[in-house]
């Protein structure tokens, strides 16, 4: 029996909640500083909170838009799609998950590979899309990255990969794990050809992606406060039976421990990447401004690369 009993009824909540006149989606609450930010302000600021510099997650296309000159690029291998090789079913059939992600993102898989110019430097870039099954790496992602690296070798171009992934795609089992080795092999060839590779780690970069190409950049650049790790903190705590330190697996912690090279604000990312590429020997295209319509022809990148390659090999 309780000692005290509440006899009076608690204060009732206001009977009617006034309907908000502001349409939904115009304002966003920043998880960093709890400020309310106008959506358009956030968009013009590359989805970085203007007050506390919290970096909101953005999609692969937006990513590429922040990097490439005038938002112009040529996409490669957009048609590659997974065939569900294991006929896998967990709580839902993998085929269904693929179809839902395709409908939601308009992509065939979790990666976009493009070539274009970053501050005048012809570059091949790949960006991962988290909205497509957690940006997971299956056969298609692996194949597209390997092809992107081979294209870079053919055309003597640097490679930039923007990582954003939950790791290898378990619905493709060992086949997805094999992509780690395949991409690493291709990157080794890129290294031997003395072509730069920059890895940009964004929130979150985990699992098989961290364990392979994300950490193999000549320069590994992370966004502030991004979650970067292999296994999640809970799994590690249970395994080693120790409490993990504050900020474990965040960019700042990893920079201090020497696991990454730089932390760069998204608003400065393009300039830093271009500078680093120049430092590593990447050059601007010979004619500084080719007619833009030339870039839209699908065969054009190969033609430009072939013309440029003998010179850069000297
Ligand atoms: Zn904020």
Task: Please tell me about this protein's structure.
About 35% of the residues lie in helices and about 15% in strands. The protein is α/β, with parallel strands linked by helices and about 325 residues long. The strands form two sheets. It has a seven-stranded mixed sheet with strand order 3-4-5-6-7-8-9, sandwiched between helices. The protein has a two-stranded antiparallel sheet with strand order 1-2. Strand 6, helix 5 (about 175-190) and strand 7 form a beta-alpha-beta unit. The longest helix has 20 residues, at about 175-190. The protein is globular and about 80 Å long. Mean pLDDT is about 90; it is low at about 295-314.
Label the overall shape. Answer: globular
Low-confidence sequence ranges: 297-314
Class based on secondary structure composition and strand pairing: alpha/beta
Helix content percent band: 25-40%
**Pattern of helices and strands:** EEHHEHEEHEHEHEHHEHHH
Individual helix count: 11
- Strand order, main sheet: write it out: 3-4-5-6-7-8-9
Strand content: 15-25%
Q: What is Rg?
A: 23 Å
Please describe the biggest sheet, giving its number of strands, its sense, and whether it closes into a barrel. 7 strands, mixed
Bound molecules: zinc ion
Q: What's the pLDDT, averaged over the residues?
A: 89
Measure the end-to-end span: 90 Å
Q: How many β-strand runs?
A: 9
């Amino acid at each position: 029996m309780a000692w005290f009993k509440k006899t009076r009824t608690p204060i009732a909540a206001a009977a009617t909640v006034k309907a908000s006149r502001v349409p939904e989606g115009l304002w966003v609450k920043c998880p960093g500083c709890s400020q309310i930010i106008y959506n358009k302000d956030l968009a013009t600021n590359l989805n970085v909170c203007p007050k506390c510099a919290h970096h909101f997650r953005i999609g692969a296309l937006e990513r590429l838009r922040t990097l490439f000159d005038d938002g112009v690029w040529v996409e490669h291998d957009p048609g590659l799609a997974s065939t569900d090789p294991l006929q896998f079913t967990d709580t839902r059939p993998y085929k269904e998950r693929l179809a839902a992600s395709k409908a939601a993102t308009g992509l065939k898989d979790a990666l976009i590979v493009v070539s274009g110019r970053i501050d005048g430097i012809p570059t091949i870039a790949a960006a991962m899309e988290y909205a497509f099954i957690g940006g997971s790496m299956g056969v298609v992602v692996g194949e597209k990255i390997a092809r992107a690296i081979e294209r870079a070798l053919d055309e003597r171009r640097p490679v930039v990969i923007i990582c954003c992934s939950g790791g290898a795609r378990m619905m493709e089992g060992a086949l997805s794990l094999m992509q780690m080795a395949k991409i690493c092999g291709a990157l080794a060839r890129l290294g031997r050809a003395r072509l730069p590779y920059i890895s940009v780690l964004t929130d979150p970069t985990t699992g098989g992606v961290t364990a392979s190409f994300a950490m193999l950049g000549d320069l590994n650049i992370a966004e502030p406060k991004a979650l970067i790790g292999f296994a999640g903190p809970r799994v590690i705590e249970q395994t080693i039976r120790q409490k993990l330190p504050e900020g474990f697996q965040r960019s700042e912690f990893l920079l201090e421990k020497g696991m990454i090279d730089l932390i760069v604000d998204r608003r400065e990312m393009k300039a830093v990447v271009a500078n680093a590429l120049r430092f590593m020997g990447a050059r601007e295209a010979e004619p500084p401004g080719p007619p833009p319509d030339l870039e839209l022809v699908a065969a054009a990148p190969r033609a430009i690369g072939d013309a440029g390659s003998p010179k850069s090999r000297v």
